[in-house]
Design a protein that fits this description.
The complex is a heterotrimer of chains A (263), B (338) and C (96). Chain A has helices at 8-33, 42-70, 76-81, 92-95, 101-122, 128-156, 160-173, 185-192, 203-217, 224-229, 243-251, 253-257. Chain A has 263 residues and is mostly helical. Chain A has one domain: Ferritin (Up-down Bundle), CATH 1.20.1260.10. In chain A, helix 1 (8-33) runs antiparallel to helix 2 (42-70) and helix 5 (101-122) packs across helix 7 (160-173). Chain B has 15 helices and 2 strands. Chain B has helices at 8-11, 17-28, 41-60, 62-66, 75-100, 106-114, 132-149, 158-186, 190-209, 221-226, 234-252, 281-291, 295-308, 310-328, 330-337; strands spanning 262-264, 273-275. In chain B, helix 5 (75-100) runs antiparallel to helix 8 (158-186), helix 7 (132-149) runs antiparallel to helix 8 (158-186) and helix 7 (132-149) packs parallel to helix 9 (190-209). With 96 residues, chain C is α+β, with helices and mostly antiparallel strands. Chain C has a domain at 3-63: Phenylacetic acid degradation B (Ubiquitin-like (UB roll)), CATH 3.10.20. Chain C has 2 helices and 3 strands; from the N terminus they run E-E-H-E-H. In chain C, strands 2-1-3 form a 3-stranded antiparallel beta sheet, with helices on one face. In chain C, strand 1 and strand 2 form a beta hairpin. The relative contact order of chain C is 0.17. The chains are: A mainly alpha (263), B mainly alpha (338), C alpha+beta (96). Chains A and B meet through helix 1, helix 2, helix 3, helix 6 and helix 7 of A and helix 4, helix 5, helix 8, helix 13 and helix 14 of B. The structure holds fe (ii) ion (3 copies). One fe (ii) ion binds at residues 58, 91, 145, 149 of chain B.
């Protein structure tokens, strides 16, 4: 494969970042799927699985490509199901329990606005597989933003109760925002060679979109400085919240109980 | 769709023998009945009951499979199952819409379901205890549903028939993904094959019960057949299902848990078919009457979703209301025009 | 659960491909037009069924009355002179 020609450090960085992204999508898609059958209205029982299916589809493509770059015979399921908790490197935001509908929608909005811009930049990746994946995912994220923004606006400018719930969700999620933009040697390497953009470069565009939506939702996002200083961190290093173990206990249940089988 | 436009005079249409005969003649001529058409009260009520029950079955039917969404063993299976359960929600939605053309609202039907006044398919009151149940449900439960539903595509009531056409197109993926899942298990390790057999053992009889009481005990069948709401009897459909499924079980190398199952070449007018054992009708009626393994839990789960979703639905309505009054506010209008 | 909080009903029309007309495909519930459009996308185009969607509040549909259908539609039945086959053209004139 093309990766064989790359210096180890570079191919490692690619693998690590693809797995981070895949983990974000898997874990968030998994959380979203928990709503299926329990949504506030039937129409939403179709909408949320649509988003979850997009996320899971992106996770599959990302894991598969990561596996090829790694070149150690790990397929999408080996990566998705058969790693230790510390080896999952998703954003902490993604693993948070769903909470109420306001929390779920706001989290999805934060994530999807980020991904929309991220994939848009990713379309010019030096890796054609990533570029193709980004252009497909970009359209999907664009729709997720529309759907979630619509709800965030309606909850924010709906009833007193919905506004209060949304404000509470914002408070709960704010500490997790800065992790979206975190930069380290992996993201720097990938940014330098044009493999995938530096997450930190998304901040202005992300902020502008969120501000527009929040205006209509009558919400106010804390200033950037606060986001950076009050942030939680650790997901990219595999240091998770207490809820992650339970999530993995379900996710990995069959693969752990019956190792090495075909399903 | 048309419920708002329902003609009051139709609802009260005097059901003279001539009117009923005329209606029956339309049915006999294979004409479709559409929402605003005059129809006997009993026809309308039968449809509301049947379509409502069918819709509730799809919605409650999401729960047993959703129970395994977070534990699906591969990403391929996880996405297939999620798409499948989502489809069932869609089926419920199409069917509620069809019922709404008869002058009942989705909210009303939901309230009846949650109050325990409306029935739904008893199969969904059984628990999903292993991953193999995702296979058995797709294969047997969706398989039985297809047997029931394909004839309904030709049902005399237009909106119901159209909803069924859409649903049937989607159902075949459900059955195939379930059967394929069973194939994987049966080609797998002993543990996996045992899991598959155990699942077939638990789902076989409840699947046969899905066709409803035996023709001799069925309350509604005769009139429904005359009206072409139902085209085959419960027992006919059950027989078709058994005949189709036995081969599929043999292909999997699984044993159907019925010692009386035997080929009978005289069955089906000499075409041959399977004799099978007697359904445990006590169990059937027990579950129908609300005392199955999970009747309470299923309704509790639906009630929770409905009640906890109330503030979301209210917020959306409140927002829509605000937007409407903002748009009719003379100041705003002036702005728009200028 | 009060009836005051009933979410309005919408009719959904889908254009399967450009070049074809929008066709009624079902209905759904939504509080406003924007949500109705998105719900229509999620409910009725999951298998690539659409290129364009219309949603219309069901209450805005004005339907002809079936009991008037004889008066509305029967009079067109015998106007056969509106159809091309009503007119005899000799075969040797060719297709017209
Ligand atoms: Fe279904
Ligand atoms: Fe069904
Ligand atoms: Fe199904």
């Amino acid at each position: 494969m093309q990766s064989a020609a790359l210096p180890t450090a570079e191919s490692d960085a690619r693998f690590i970042q693809l797995v981070r992204l895949a983990d974000d999508h898997l874990i968030l898609g998994h959380r979203l799927s928990e709503w299926c059958g329990h949504a506030p209205m039937l129409e939403e029982d179709l909408a949320m699985p649509n988003i979850a299916l997009d996320l899971l589809g992106q996770a599959r493509a990302l894991y598969s490509h990561a596996g090829i770059i790694e070149n150690k015979d790990r397929d999408e399921d080996a990566l998705a199901y058969r790693r230790l908790e510390r080896e999952y490197t998703n954003l902490l935001m993604c693993e948070r329990p769903n909470g109420d509908f306001a929390h779920t929608m706001l989290r999805q909005l934060f994530f999807s606005v980020f991904m929309k811009h991220y994939w848009l930049s990713g379309e010019s990746s030096s890796d054609p597989v990533v570029a193709a994946l980004a252009s497909k995912a970009q359209k999907e994220s664009d729709y997720h933003v529309r759907h979630c923004a619509q709800w965030v606006i309606r909850l924010g400018d709906g009833t007193d109760e919905s506004a209060a719930r949304l404000a509470k969700a914002l408070q709960a999620l704010t500490p997790y925002l800065h992790e979206l933009f975190e930069s380290d040697s992996v993201t720097q390497t990938n940014g330098d060679v044009g493999f995938l953009p530096e997450p930190s470069t998304m901040q202005t565009r992300w902020r502008a979109d969120i501000d527009t939506i929040f205006d209509l939702a009558k919400l106010c996002l804390p200033s950037v400085e606060n986001l950076l200083t009050q942030g939680k961190s650790g997901g990219r290093q595999g240091l998770h919240s207490e809820s992650m173990g339970f999530l993995l206990a379900e996710l990995q249940f069959l693969q752990r109980t019956y190792p090495n089988m075909q399903w | 769709m048309y419920s708002q436009g329902l003609n009051e005079s139709n609802l009260a249409s005097a059901e003279t023998p001539e009117f009923l005969a005329e209606f029956q003649a339309r049915i006999d001529a294979d004409e479709k009945i559409e929402p605003n058409d005059p129809m006997p009260q009993a026809y309308r009520q039968t449809l509301i009951r049947q379509i409502g029950q069918h819709a509730h079955s799809e919605i409650v039917g999401m729960l047993p499979e959703a129970n395994w969404l977070t534990r699906a063993p591969t990403l391929r299976r996880k996405t297939a199952l999620l798409a499948k359960v989502q489809d069932e929600g869609g089926h419920g939605l199409y069917l509620y819409s069809a019922a709404e053309t008869l002058g009942i609202s989705r909210e009303q039907m939901t309230e009846e379901l949650l109050a325990g006044k409306a029935k739904y398919s008893s199969i969904f009151n059984y628990p999903t205890l292993s991953w193999a149940d995702m296979g058995a449900i797709g294969w047997l439960v969706d398989g039985a549903a297809i047997m029931n539903q394909v004839p309904l595509c030709r049902c005399s009531y237009g909106p119901y028939a159209r909803a069924m056409v859409r649903i049937c197109k989607e159902e075949s993926f459900h059955q195939r993904q379930g059967y394929e899942l069973m194939i994987s298990l049966c080609n797998g390790t002993t543990a996996q094959k045992d899991m598959a057999q155990d699942s077939l053992n638990r789902w076989w009889w409840p699947s046969l019960m899905m066709f409803g009481p035996s023709d001799s005990d069925s309350l509604h069948s005769d009139q429904s057949r005359l009206w072409k709401i139902k085209r085959f009897t419960n027992d006919e459909l059950r027989q078709k299902f058994v005949d189709a499924t036995v081969k599929q079980a043999q292909h999997l190398g699984l044993e159907i848990p019925d010692p009386q199952l035997a080929w009978n070449e005289n069955k089906n007018d000499g075409a041959g078919g399977y004799d099978f054992g007697e359904i445990d009708w006590d169990e059937f009626w027990r579950v129908v009457k609300g005392h199955g393994p999970l009747n309470r839990e299923r309704i509790a789960a639906r009630t929770k979703a409905w009640e906890e979703g109330a503030w979301v639905r209210e917020a959306a309505l409140a927002y829509a209301e605000k937007q409407k009054s903002a748009n009719t506010d003379p100041n705003n209008l002036a702005q728009k025009v200028s | 659960m009060s009836t005051s909080s009933v979410t309005p009903l919408w009719e959904v029309f889908i254009r399967p491909r450009n070049g074809l007309a929008h066709r009624h495909c079902g209905s759904l519930h939504a509080a406003d037009a924007q949500m109705a459009l998105q719900a229509a996308r999620d409910v009725y185009t999951r298998r690539g069924e659409g290129q364009s969607i219309w949603v219309v509040p069901s209450s805005n549909i004005v339907a002809s009355d079936p009991s008037a259908s004889a008066a509305f539609f029967d009079p067109a039945d015998d106007k056969i002179y509106r159809h091309p086959t009503f007119y005899d053209i000799p075969d040797d004139v060719g297709h017209m």
